[in-house]
Amino acid sequence: MAAESPTAPDWLDKGDNAWQLTAGSLVALQSVPGLMILYAGMVPTKWAVNSAFMAFYAFASVLICWVIYAYKAAFGKKMLPFVGVPGPVVEMDWELRQAVLPSANITANFPLSTMVYFQFVFAAITVILMAGAFLGRMSFKAWMIFVPLWLTLSYTVGAFSIWGGGFLFWRGVIDYSGGYVIHLSSGTAGFVGSYWIGPRLKADREAFTPHSTLLMLTGAGILWIGWNGFNGGDPYAASPDAGAAVLNTNICTAMSLLVWTALDIIFFKKPSTIGATQGMITGLVAITPAAGVVAGWGAIIIGVCSGSVPWITMNVIAKKLKFMEKFDDTLGVVHTHAVAGALGGFLVGIFATAKGCIAFAAVSPGGAIAGNGKQVGWQIAGACFIIAWNTFWTSAIMLFIKYVLRIPLRMTEEELLIGDDAIHGESAYTFGDAVHMHLPTTLHGKEVRKVSDVEATATAEGSKSKSTSNGGKEDKIA
């Protein structure tokens, strides 16, 4: 006789739990495989494996730290006005309890385990987005240490302060789904970190051509559709507000993509898939702090701004500022995430409606259009805190890794020149012409064929030519 199924607790809403798990899974897909594919497509072939692997590693690393101590630091009981008491969430009886955010006085109708997973995927994608600024030269060993340290000292503070019941939460700062906690923090940290790591090779900076625009667009598509869970899951319920957030997200993103593409055509005379992808991302980012608390027309206005302001900072302002040359932000995350996130956070201070804030159970009564003009000031204050905190701690962590642990932040010159095969002993493509032409092919870090006589001769002649150039001295790598 089959055993009786356990009775569901009275507080459980199966629809809310199903949607929350679905939303969390959609966000996870944005990182693996979404951003892995996007990064692999946007970089030259020699960096495809390393770029994807940085995202793959970060996803796993963040999860273990999250369940051991970081979740409670971000969403647990208050220890300080900006961070909670760290601790584990791996005890089974604790995971089966109802989800409660004690410092924010928020209760959801699904298990704590669902909440822990949902918040984890946000933490993971924040670090992965930041990696976009470091591609093409950050040491993988340094990245392995940087990820848990930054999660601990930076992400948890922003999350608790704005979402978990910290001082900015109770001041009514609106960040519906991470414009500040995720995008402004990752964009700021990526920009600052790019300075400490140093630039890519000169040749890479001058010609960092995407090796597969189709891969890039595939990753971008996964990112866009996955954002339905990113913003739709933050009411913590399968509610009307979740539907509004999803619709507004897509409206703003479409408008932003169209505006960016139009600007590309006007000023560069050609529509660009890379530009359209950037416009898509800035639209997704800018609507994130506002998704469920603005009306549809507000989403359109935010989309116009997100398709134009970051375009100007990336293509005009950044090229005129000399100091920007010291910040080799590989994929421009300071524009697509920091600028777009701050812009969206500012605009929600204007366009948040009273009904939207009530539906979201926000502390704030709404933005300027709802008669609450001071909301704009609090949005600016929240942005300043996130920028300052991330600037300090990203710098401190980078310097700690470099000078205390004595682990180089930047790859060796050989790794910078060769790429994936020197770093991981693996190549992105090991079939077709690579096999027939006897090009280097690796498997789990070991070569699977011998160098032919023709290749050996060519290599020797190349080395001789190099050694006799420049007065008999080897040319230095840029």
Give your account of this protein's structure.
The chain starts with 13 loop residues before the first helix and ends in a 10-residue tail after the last helix. The chain is globular, with a radius of gyration of 24 Å. It folds into two domains: 14-404, Ammonium transporter AmtB like domains (Ammonium transporter fold); 419-468, no CATH class. It contains 19 helices and six strands. Helix 5 (140-164) packs antiparallel against helix 15 and helix 7 (179-197) packs parallel to helix 15. With 478 residues, the chain is mainly alpha-helical. Keywords: Ammonia transport, Membrane, Transmembrane, Transmembrane helix, Transport. It is found in: Cell membrane; Membrane. Belongs to the ammonia transporter channel (TC 1.A.11.2) family. One of its GO terms (molecular function) is ammonium channel activity.
CATH level-four homologous superfamily name of the largest domain:
Ammonium transporter AmtB like domains
Q: Which architecture name of the largest domain does CATH use? A: Orthogonal Bundle
What oligomeric state is this? single chain
Could you spell the SSE succession in H and E letters? HHEEHEEHHHHHHHHHHHHHHHEEH
Poorly predicted tracts of residues? 433-478
Compute the CA-based radius of gyration.
Answer: 24 Å
Q: pLDDT average, as an integer? A: 89
- Walk across the major sheet and give the strand order: 1-2
Total discrete domains: 2
Number of strands: 6
Number of helices: 19
Helix content range of the residues, please?
55-70%
What fold name stands as the CATH topology of the largest domain? Ammonium transporter fold
Class by alpha and beta content: mainly alpha
- How far the N terminus sits from the C terminus, by CA atoms, comes to 74 Å
CATH class of the largest domain, named Mainly Alpha
